[in-house]
Design goal:
The protein has eight helices and 21 strands. It is α+β, with helices and mostly antiparallel strands. The strands form four sheets. The chain has a six-stranded mixed sheet, sandwiched between helices. A five-stranded antiparallel sheet has the order 2-1-4-5-6, with helices on one face. Strands 14-13-12-15-21 form a five-stranded antiparallel sheet. The longest helix is centred in the middle third of the chain and has 18 residues. The two termini are 26 Å apart.
Length: 357
Amino acid sequence: MLNISLQLPRDRFLLDVDISLDGDSIWAIMGRSGCGKTSLLRAIAGLESGAKGKISFHGQVWLDTDKQICIAPEQRRIGYIFQEARLFPHLDVMGNLQFARQRACRRDNTFSFSHVVEQLGVDHLLGRRIQALSGGEKQRVAIARTLLNAPDLLLMDEPLASLDWTSKTTILPILRNLQKEFGIPVIFVSHAREEVARLADNMLLIDHGRVTLQGECRRLFISMDSDLISDDGALSILEADVTDHDEGHGLTELSLGRQKLLVNWVNAEVGTRLRILLPAQEVSIATEDLDCLSIQNRLAVTVETMKELGNRNVLLSLSTEGQTVQAVVTCRAVDMLGISIGKPVFAYFKASCLNVV
């Protein structure tokens, strides 16, 4: 458990946080630019000398200004991943990794070199010079180097911000598996909604230095009071189990409770639970069960809440099988279909618009 109760003056506000984060999941810190996300991360790491209050991790006190306790950053056993890889340019990849290995925080409990290299997919890069690496390769090496230092807590400050989407899609699954593979609590800062939806189990939303929302990521993403919601940004996070594969058509069948979904082929064993991202703009609503459409995914849902957005659109929250699907429709469609709270309808969407984590 990471307990944080601190205050840190900033130019336009006071960062004032009193929270507890469990160490068995991946936490995201999200909010607008300049809201205090990175300041909070740096304060946890001990990089903000003006921070006052208390910070403790697994019972070890890192900061208690009343008792004049302030553990130095290098003694907190924290791994910190920056936007830039910050590798040593005079060493090759192997040299960078060996340097971290030699300076490991926990020499009696370091991670296997081969395991780290394999999980980060950098084994074929060991002989390369840093200057010869792409941005995505540099960041994977930086993460591997940090893990080989055997930290107790991993902090990441927008680790994918400088990468193109192709590089991001390579690294995202790796980051998602870090907590599970190495048992390290992970806290990361991001302003990218889809990155958070793909990676985080839990989330903090910060505004002007204060935590405005805290909790399970997929529930906060459907909170009607959340300012994460906009006309083009509403996103559903669903969980479903692999039930079958259709090799001939390149599709995978998933079960969402008693209902079935089709997604583009996923290399996962039957029974595997997957996280699915569904943009609200991709969901169409019908009042009847139609079987004459090329759109093959349909869920029987019930209208749970309705919220008017800008541009004469309405955000619908639709309950099904204990989960929530969001859809953005026009006010005209609401009137024409007679959509109202409690009304049973059908949500239709293509397999190609589902992003599987």
